[in-house]
């Protein structure tokens, strides 16, 4: 009678690209979490007007990447891969010199 | 030793992370999934890629709603922050009137949002409403149901009535926290009232004001119930803000895919502004 707790996640309407996206985010968080134990981050001042930690710069990179993709979708019909390329460069600059 | 404690502190956050995972992250993941699909029913959905994002980002109606929303939030901040500071400065600092003033000021904050809309709908009606009848009686051609500017001003005044108290209470708390020694030093130096405000009170209120700005921005940027009840978004689309456009799309038209894409864009805009405010507050705290 009692089937127990069901972990049916079909209500979340999962798609493969979204699953890959969130797995990538989770992996990124785990890597940066482990990195915090191995090589703790310290605040430093780069070209940004505020001192930032590695986590701050990662968050800014992700948020900036989201907006780069949105702006690309709003104004261009070209492949979204260009926006992804710009985002990678932006994230690298932010993490290294931000 | 300190470094080790700092690192283990992150593990203490784990229970909160789990709660947030179920209450916020899983629904957010669902919205992301919906934003990439055309949903016809629980078992009938098709992957459409970023088509909904492109459609939403290029929709002139939503551009209009975004511009109205930004203008509304800017107007709210420009009015409520100076007004809140000014009224907080006028409140008594000691004595029995302090409690009376604070309770009276807190009253609008206790009224549910949809009730605020109903109160102002009745209050502003040009035929039987107290404010509407008086404004028309003294010569203004006031009709918030037919005139866009009147509707805008009514929604704005309603929001000022509802939320300025929050700014006042925050500023009042900030003012009460300033030690008397600062005022005594200013008196000895013969500082004017303006100088006391400019060089003592305002710098000390900096942190509180940023929190007030952040809260008022977030609340005003996602305003829904009050204008929905008062004007229904009209006349035309004059007072249709982002949240109402979103609700119409998701619940009215049942366009779940575009509504999900719209929700994510809406969320990212609020996240961006909140993060900028957060960094500013943090930086100001450091600078002292």
What features would you highlight for this structure?
heterodimer, A: 98 residues, mainly alpha, 3 helices, B: 288 residues, MetI-like fold, 2 domains, 2 strands, 77% helix, membrane (chain A), transmembrane (chain A), DUF2160 domain-containing protein (chain A), transmembrane helix (chain A)
SSE layout and pairing:
The complex is a heterodimer of chains A (98) and B (288).
Chain A lengths: L15 H23 L15 H22 L4 H18 L1
Chain B lengths: L1 H11 L1 H22 L1 E5 L2 E4 L3 H7 L2 H31 L6 H14 L2 H12 L5 H8 L10 H29 L3 H9 L4 H29 L3 H6 L11 H11 L3 H32 L1
Antiparallel strand pairs in B: 1-2
Helix pairs in contact in B: 2-13, 3-13, 4-8, 4-10, 5-8, 8-10, 10-13, 12-13
Structure write-up:
The complex is a heterodimer of chains A (98) and B (288). The model of chain A has no long low-confidence stretch (mean pLDDT 88). Chain A has helices at 16-38, 54-75, 80-97. Chain A has one domain (10-97). Helix content of chain A is 64%, strand content 0%. Chain A contains three helices and no strands. With 288 residues, chain B is mainly alpha-helical. In chain B, a hairpin with a 2-residue loop joins strand 1 (37-41) and strand 2 (44-47). Chain B starts with a helix and ends with a helix. The mean pLDDT of chain B is 89.
């Amino acid at each position: 009678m009692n089937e127990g707790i069901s972990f049916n996640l079909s209500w979340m309407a999962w798609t493969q690209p979204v699953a890959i996206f969130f797995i990538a985010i989770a992996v990124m968080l785990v890597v940066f979490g482990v990195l915090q134990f191995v090589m703790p981050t310290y605040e430093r001042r780069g070209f940004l007007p505020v001192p930032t930690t590695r986590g701050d710069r990662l968050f800014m990179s992700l948020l900036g990447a989201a907006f780069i993709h949105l702006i690309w979708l709003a104004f261009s019909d070209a492949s979204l891969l260009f926006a992804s390329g710009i985002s990678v460069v932006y994230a690298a600059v932010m993490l290294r010199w931000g | 030793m300190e470094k080790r404690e700092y690192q283990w502190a992150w593990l203490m956050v784990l229970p909160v992370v789990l709660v947030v995972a179920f209450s916020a992250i899983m629904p957010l993941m669902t919205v992301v999934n919906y934003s990439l699909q055309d949903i016809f029913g629980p078992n009938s959905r098709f992957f459409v890629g970023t088509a909904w994002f492109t459609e939403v980002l290029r929709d002139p109606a939503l551009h209009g709603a975004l511009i109205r929303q930004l203008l509304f939030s800017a107007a709210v901040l420009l009015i409520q922050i100076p007004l809140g500071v000014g009224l907080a400065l006028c409140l008594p600092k000691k004595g029995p009137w302090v409690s009376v003033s604070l309770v009276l000021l807190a009253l609008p904050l206790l009224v549910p949002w949809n009730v605020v809309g109903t109160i102002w709908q009745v209050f502003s009606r040009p035929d039987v409403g107290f404010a509407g009848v008086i404004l028309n009686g003294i010569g203004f051609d006031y009709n918030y149901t037919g005139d866009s500017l009147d509707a805008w001003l009514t929604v704005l005044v309603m929001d000022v009535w509802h939320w300025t108290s929050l700014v006042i209470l925050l500023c009042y708390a900030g003012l009460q926290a300033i030690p008397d020694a600062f005022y005594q030093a200013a008196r000895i130096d013969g500082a004017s009232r303006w100088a006391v405000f400019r060089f003592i009170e305002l710098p000390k209120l900096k942190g509180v004001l940023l929190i007030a700005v952040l809260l008022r921005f977030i609340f005003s940027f996602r305003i829904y119930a009050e204008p929905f009840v008062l004007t229904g978004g009209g006349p035309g689309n004059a007072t249709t803000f982002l949240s109402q456009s979103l609700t119409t799309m998701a619940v009215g038209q049942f366009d779940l895919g575009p509504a999900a894409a719209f929700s994510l864009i809406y969320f990212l805009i609020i996240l961006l502004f909140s993060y900028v405010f957060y960094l500013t507050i943090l930086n100001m705290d450091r600078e002292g």
